[in-house]
Amino acid sequence: MSDVTSTKLGWIGAGRMGRVLAERLLRSGHDLAVYNRTRAKTEPLEALGAATVEAPADLADRDIVFTMIGGDADLLAVIDGPSGLLTGSHGPGLLIDCSTVSSDASRQVRRRAEEIGTPMLAAPVSGNPKVAKAGMLSLVVSGPREPFETARPYLEVLGRSVTYVGDGDVARLVKIAHNLLLGVVTQSLAEITVLAERGGVARSDLLAFINDSVMGSAFTRYKTPAFVNLDFHPTFTGHLLRKDLELGLEAGRDLGVPLPITAAVHEIVTALVSDGHGDEDFAALLLLEAAGAGLELAPERVDVDDGLHPVDDLARAARGDE
C-alpha cells in the first residue's frame, strides 16, 4: 500500500480507550469516520477531523473498521444488531476488533464477517488510556496472515508493539492470559507492600527498591503512584478484572489446565468488589490486603514517577509537548 493515509478507516467505540486510539490515527493523518452510542463522546475526535456517523452500518463502505467495545453483548449489538456493521449485503474490507471479549463472542462475529466476505482480525490491547496516550500500548493479533500484513501499518500507529500469534481467535487467549498475570502480580505486590509497611518500611521506599531490581517492570512502576498515594482513580476497574479472571478460569476448564493461583486471586477480587471497590482501580487490592492485616493506610503524598513518558511524536502532540 503506497499511501496508507489514503485508506478510509472506521472506528466504533469512543470510550476512554477507544477515543485515545482513534485520536492517534487522526494525528497520523488518516481518514477516519467514527461511531459511538453516545454521540457527545465523538466530539473531541470531530475536532481533530473525524466524521461522525449515525449507525455502525454507515461504516460498511470503509476499507478497515476497528471496534473497541466494552463486552460481549455490546460488541454483538454493534456488529449484528439493528443497523449493525455487518447487517447489510456487504461489510468493510477488513474488520479489526480490539475489544477484550470472550472467544465465543469473537467466533460469532468472525462467522458473520465470513458470511459477507469480510476478513477479521482479533487485536486486543495491553494497557489503559494513559499507557495508550504515552504510545506504550502493546497489541496481540490473530487471524488470516495476509489481512494482518495489510493492517500492520495502522496497528503500529496504535502502540509500540504488535505481535502476531496465529490464526483464528488465539489472540483472545493471549490477552486473557496477560490479564490473569496482571491480577496475580498486583495481588502479590499488595501483599509484600503491606508486609513491608507493617515492618516499618515506607511503601515508596519498598517500591523504589522493587522497581530498580530485576523484579521491577513497566507495570510495577506504573502502579507505584497508586500504591504510594492511595489514588485509585480507575484505569482498569475491579469489575473488569473479575470478568477477565472468570474468562481465564473458563478457558482453563475448557483446556484442562488447572489455575489454582488464578482461582485464589479471583476470590480476592470478588471480595474487593463486594467490599465496594469494584468501580475503583484494581490497585485497591492494596486496601483489602491492609484491612486483612488490621493496618490503616494513609497517603504518603510523595511525588512518584509512573514511568509513562511519551515515546513518540503522537504521544507528545496529544500531551501538548513541543
The CATH level-2 architecture of the largest domain is identified as 3-Layer(aba) Sandwich
- Widest β-sheet, arrangement of strands: 3-2-1-4-5-6
Distance between the termini: 31 Å
Largest sheet: 6 strands, parallel
State the CATH topology of the largest domain. Rossmann fold
Give the CATH superfamily of the largest domain.
NAD(P)-binding Rossmann-like Domain
The domain count comes to: 2
What order do the SSEs take from the amino end to the carboxyl end, as H and E? Answer: EHEHEEHEHEEHEHEHHHHHHH
Task: Describe the protein.
This protein has 322 residues and is an alpha/beta fold. It has helices at residues 16-27, 43-46, 72-80, 103-115, 129-133, 145-158, 170-198, 203-211, 218-229, 238-255, 260-277, 285-292, 313-319; strands at residues 8-12, 31-35, 51-52, 64-67, 94-97, 120-122, 125-126, 138-142, 161-166. The chain folds into two domains: 4-168, Rossmann fold (3-Layer(aba) Sandwich), CATH 3.40.50.720; 173-292, N-(1-d-carboxylethyl)-l-norvaline Dehydrogenase, domain 2, CATH 1.10.1040. Helix content is 49%, strand content 11%. 43% of the residues are buried. The mean pLDDT is 94. The two termini are 31 Å apart. The radius of gyration is 20 Å and the shape is globular. It has a six-stranded parallel sheet with strand order 3-2-1-4-5-6, with helices on both faces. A three-stranded mixed sheet has the order 7-8-9, sandwiched between helices. α8 (203-211) packs antiparallel against α9.
